[in-house]
Design a protein that fits this description.
- The structure is a single chain.
- The chain has 178 residues and is an alpha+beta fold.
- It has 6 helices and 6 strands; from the N terminus they run βαααααββββαβ.
- The strands form 2 sheets. Strands 1-5-4-6 form a 4-stranded mixed sheet, with no helix packed on it. The protein has a two-stranded antiparallel ribbon with strand order 2-3.
- α1 runs antiparallel to α2, α2 packs across α5 and α3 crosses α5.
- The N terminus is likely disordered.
Length: 178
């Protein structure tokens, strides 16, 4: 993980995107993947859309359930009603692979303490972030500030530790729940 990154000196709420925001983020992700030469498959797009549209951190099994519901409610292009076929089940490994892809492309973050995923506030900028997680309302704020970056720089430059992935999480009560 490179410590050369952009930082901003404020917090970002990672949920509550409008439908327009979700559409813009999906289009930007498609373009980012096209430029990077990686495949942004339909399943990856659907999972990213569900993470963006969620109003709280979302777990992998919640995503599987939502994807299965989407498949049951959407008519198949081959008209499964005529062929008496049920929609194909969503396999957990395929969802986990898609989540790993979205993580590797910097589109989402994984919150390890609650085993859930949230959208990245700066998906096109390599950065290190800390997450403030409210125990009461599950609000998540992403902070990619200079002190967070300095901690990563210390680990890599002063200690010689090569950081592959970092997740800094602080749990407590948000401003609204205090």
């Amino acid at each position: 993980m490179s410590t050369t990154s952009s930082t901003c000196e404020h917090l970002h709420d990672v949920q509550h995107f409008t439908a327009h925001d979700v559409t813009e983020r999906l289009m930007a992700a498609k373009e980012q993947c096209r430029i990077s030469g990686v495949r942004f498959t339909l399943l990856r797009q659907q999972i990213y859309q569900l993470v963006l549209a969620a109003n709280k951190p979302v777990g992998a099994y919640d995503l599987i359930t939502q994807l299965q519901q989407m498949r049951l409610s959407e008519p198949d292009t081959q008209d499964s009603a005529l062929t008496n076929q049920t929609p194909k089940n969503v396999a957990p490994p395929t969802v986990y692979r898609s989540l790993e892809f979205l993580l590797s492309e910097g589109l989402i973050h994984q919150l390890t303490s609650i085993n859930a995923y949230v959208p990245c506030c700066h998906p096109r900028a390599q950065h290190t972030a800390a997450f403030l997680i409210c125990d009461q309302c599950q609000r998540v704020q992403e902070c990619s500030s200079l002190p967070v970056q300095e901690m990563m720089s210390f680990a890599e430059q002063d200690v010689g530790f090569i950081v592959a992935r970092s997740v800094i999480e602080l749990s407590g009560r948000c401003q609204a729940c205090q």
